[in-house]
Amino acid sequence: MDTVKVRNVTIGIGRPKICVPIVSSSAEEILEEARGFCQLAADLVEWRADWYEDVADVSKVLDTVGKLREILEDIPLLFTFRTSKEGGERSLEAEEYVALNRAVAASGFVDLLDVELFTGDEEVASLISYAHEYQVRVIVSSHDFRKTPSRETILGRLKKMQDLGADIPKIAVMPQVKGDVLALLAATLEMSEQYAKGPIITMSMSGAGVVSRLAGETFGSAVTYGAAGKRSAPGQVVVNDLAKVLDVIHESQENG
Q1: pTM of the shown model
Q2: Most CB atoms within 10 A, among 7, 37, 155, 188?
Q3: Which of the residues 147, 160, 170, 197 is marked catalytic?
Q4: 143 is catalytic
Q5: CA-CA distance, 237 to 225, in Å (whole number)?
């Protein structure tokens, strides 16, 4: 299986990498939040630009992401505009969504883009191709904040993301019963062992799904998301606590 290397981080080998989201609204708060990340066990930083009050102004987005790049130095930066239909703070028309992601990819300031699967097959494939021209890797994602689809549906979405050219397929689902968490973990294991060409990211949200955020190394999810302050999704664990648990699991697996 291939790995994905961004700056000094290799995704898809060893302990799951920890991604910490920035979810502030003003440029000043966004940059201040980023400055505190040097004290955290963060492998990646995600800017959730749908929280940004000036996200409609592409020039301001590029200015802010450029400043983030300076602050974060060599920490890989993931750019995400999460649409409201997938749990984000606002919506964009498909054309605006594509234009924003293209501008950020071409800026030279980010290492990864998060592109939503249901933007449309043609749009997703085009964005992936465009991002790759600028050596930007792409996470293709799907989020269901209402339920957990069947194991077969989860597998089908992950395979489709891979077929469209995703560097890293990602799916997040909401459990209604404890068995939903098992369905997500079973799909993760099957995908990682039988179909995945590279790393994948999966998670079951809310308190019931926390185990999925911790057990990625066992079942095949290569990245987990931890909170530095405000959580960007239900069930996120505080990042330094998350790192301790992941280290324990990693050491246990390494020692047999």
Answers
A1: 0.94
A2: 188
A3: 170
A4: yes
A5: 8
